[in-house]
Amino acid sequence: MALHLIRQLKQMDEQRPSFPGEHWLVMATGVAMLLRARKNQGTLARVVAIASAGALLYRAASGRDGLLARLRR
Questions:
Q1: Sequence ranges of the domains in the chain
Q2: Which of 20, 24, 26, 50 could form a disulfide with 60 if both were Cys (CB 3.0 to 4.6 A apart)?
Q3: Vertex 21 angle, CA 20 and 25, to 5°
Q4: Cα dist. 27→8, 32, 50, 57 in Å?
Q5: Three-state SS string across the chain, please?
Q6: Which of 20, 13, 26, 12 has the alpha carbon at shortest distance from 59?
Q7: Which pLDDT tens digit goes with each residue over 33-49?
Q8: Contact, 29 vs 56, CB < 8 A?
């Protein structure tokens, strides 16, 4: 069930037009989360923040209009 939902969300994301600077915004959010994770006192909060930041940074680099896609052109 969860995998089906993820596939649907991914398909919707691929079909929508991206807006200028979207991946820069995602990257900045990921970096901000990493910096914030350094200040979290709780281990669980830190792990969640780091994992989320990693996912955002991966998305910024590898997304449809991300850095890696631009380098391939």
A1: 20-72
A2: 26
A3: 140
A4: 23, 9, 13, 5
A5: CHHHHHHHHHHHHHHCCCCCCHHHHHHHHHHHHHHHHCCCCCHHHHHHHHHHHHHHHHHHHHCCCCHHHHHHC
A6: 26
A7: 999 988 877 899 899 99
A8: yes
